[in-house]
Amino acid sequence: MFPTAALTALAVAAIARAQQVGTQTPEVHPTLSWETCSAGGSCTSNSGSVVLDANWRWLHTTDGYTNCYTGNTWDTSLCPDATTCATNCALDGADYEGTYGVTSSGNSLKLNFVTNGANTNVGSRVYLMASNTEYEMFKLLNQEFTFDVDVSNLGCGLNGALYFSEMSADGGLSEYPTNKAGAQYGTGYCDSQCPRDLKFINGLANIGNWTGDSNSANSGTGEFGSCCSEMDVWEANSFSAAFTPHPCSVTGQTECSGDQCGATSRYSGVCDPDGCDFNSFRMGDTSFYGDGLTVDTSKPFTVVTQFLTSDNTTTGTLSEIRRIYVQDGVVIQNSNSNIAGVDTANSITEDFCTQQKTAFGDTNDFENHGGLPTIGESFGRGVVLVLSVWDDYAANMLWLDSDYPTDVPATNPGVARGTCATTSGVPADVESTEAIDARSRGQHSKRRRLYQCHWRSWRWRPGPSLHCDRP
User: Fold this and answer.
1) How far apart, in Å, are the Cα atoms of 80 and each of 88, 206, 210, 457?
2) pLDDT value at position 295?
3) Which residue from 357, 399, 368 is spatially nearest to 267, judged by alpha carbons?
4) 321 domain residue, yes or no
5) Is residue 353 part of a domain?
6) Residue 439: how many other CB atoms lie within 10 Å
7) Which residues pair with 289 in a beta bridge?
8) 444 is a domain residue
9) The pLDDT of residue 347
10) Which of 306, 338, 340, 337 is nearest to 322 (CA)?
11) Cα(355)–Cα(353) distance, rounded to whole angstroms?
């Protein structure tokens, strides 16, 4: 994920976060099946489910309904300090469809962007579960991950993201005694931005130096962040797409503070916030991805990502990340780079990343944190599948689909990333014009467009052979 302060929950004041377990709403995980396949093509179905991240949930007193967090402010009588807050406040179950617009059917998952029910919810983040209490752990070395996606209703400023983060399988339940909720309630999130907007980290409230976000009525940042290596398999809307590994110099989910989080300098932290991205538009092919283009985003398609190792084993060093698409039965190889100073390539390798950083004049924090080998080590330990749809209060998603940064000429190498205007993606505009009423879900309004991301047909198989039929 490129900007800091990303993935911020924007629900109404009653929606907040905690570590104890409430009893007001039963927690029932939406089911989601997926497949494990052999290199020869035979597949076995797995019965899984998804869980909503703790950051989107209602936080209230353990013995009642009083909010522990309202707007972007903590109730200091209930939360005078981090430990007392964890004792007094409970994280409740979720109404997945009615409140959050999260629905599943078989091997299909749909996330609505804005849902207007009794309260207004914006965006969501969910994790794939192996059981009712543990996340599914993927070990991706020398493996291929495949899914179908429909981004036709995701416009400028929106991001339908699928990625892997090195979270703990139980969400920190066993390691932190004050965490009574665990993975069953979506705790333990981390990523390469070391997000400080999390209300609870390692079982304690993140209330120290909490500052409300001036751009959001419901979000803020605390003293601590939560860091881990991250592999962005898919960050996309209907205009642009990118896949990006982000290595970190820490093992697993790690709490940070100050410069460890990159608080005062973007590159002072323990993680690489930029990563090494492959965005076809940014890499010089402006006719590859979009409505009516080679990968036609007006209709569904299959995304294939292969994680190759140096010795073609599941214990080798990660050496290359390949991308392939399948649409209407046609296998589409990823676009080739067309940037001066970068060799022609359609995958992510160490050489590609070094050349790209030099050509674009970017800080090579990717190499500083160990590059692909570090990401591979994370894959070897196991990572959690994350899916979200979100807008960007830090940079309006311009880093994905427009010209960014905006204070340099768009003709400079690496600045142009998509066709969206630099005035697009303002969260207040996107959220107000793209809302969907829960009572008319699935129907397009004359005044409001339905923004949603739809994934289906998950497959995970030994790589790097591509199974070319449609999932």
Assistant:
1) 10, 11, 12, 47
2) 98
3) 368
4) yes
5) yes
6) 9
7) 295
8) yes
9) 98
10) 306
11) 6
**How many other C-beta atoms lie within 10 A of the C-beta of residue 394?**
18
Residue 254 belongs to what domain range? 20-462
Token code pair at residue 334? 């990823």
Active site residue 136: no
Sequence-distant (6+) residues with CB within 8 A of 77 are: none
Tell me how many degrees the CA angle 328-285-3 measures, rounded to the nearest 5.
100
Question: Which helix H or strand E contains 154, and what residues bound it?
Answer: none
CA atoms within 13 A on the CB side of 167: 32
Angle at 330 between CA 329 and CA 331, to 5 degrees: 120
Give per-residue pLDDT as tens, 269-286: 999 999 999 999 999 999
> Rounded distance, CA 355 to CA 350, Å?
9
Q: Contact at 8 Å (CB) between 206 and 223? A: yes
Please state, in angstroms and rounded to a whole number, the distance separating the CA atoms of residues 69 and 57: 11
Residue 235 catalytic? Answer: yes
Q: Using DSSP, state whether 442 is helix, strand or coil.
A: coil
Q: How confident is the model at residue 18 (pLDDT cuts 50, 70, 90)?
A: low
Determine the number of helices (DSSP H) and then strands (DSSP E) in the chain: 7, 32
Give 246's strand partners: 230
CATH number at residue 397: 2.70.100.10
One-letter amino acid at 150 equals D
Judged by DSSP in three states, 30 sits in: coil
Q: Find, among 219, 157, 220, the residue nearest to 429 by Cα.
A: 157
> Does residue 409 lie in a domain region?
yes
Active-site position among 144, 235, 320, 431: 235
Give the whole-angstrom CA distance, residue 188 versus residue 175: 11
Number of domains in the chain: 1
**Angle at the Cα of 131 from the Cα atoms of 127 and 132, rounded to 5 degrees:** 85
The catalytic position among 136, 230, 255, 434 is 230
- pLDDT confidence of 460, banded at 50, 70, 90? low
Q: What string of DSSP letters covers 253-281?
A: SEEEEGGGGTSSSTTSSSB-SS---B-TT
Q: Tell me how crowded residue 84 is: count the other CB atoms within 10 A of its CB.
A: 15
Asked if 141 and 316 touch (Cβ cutoff 8 Å), the reply is: yes
- Please, which residues bridge with residue 453 across strands? 111
pLDDT band at 61 (very low <50, low <70, confident <90, very high): very high
**Per-residue model confidence as pLDDT tens digits over 184-200:** 999 999 999 999 999 99
Question: Do 309 and 380 form a contact (C-beta atoms < 8 A)?
Answer: no
Alpha helices for 38-163 (secondary structure H): 82-88, 96-100
* Pairing label, strands 241-246, 69-70: unpaired
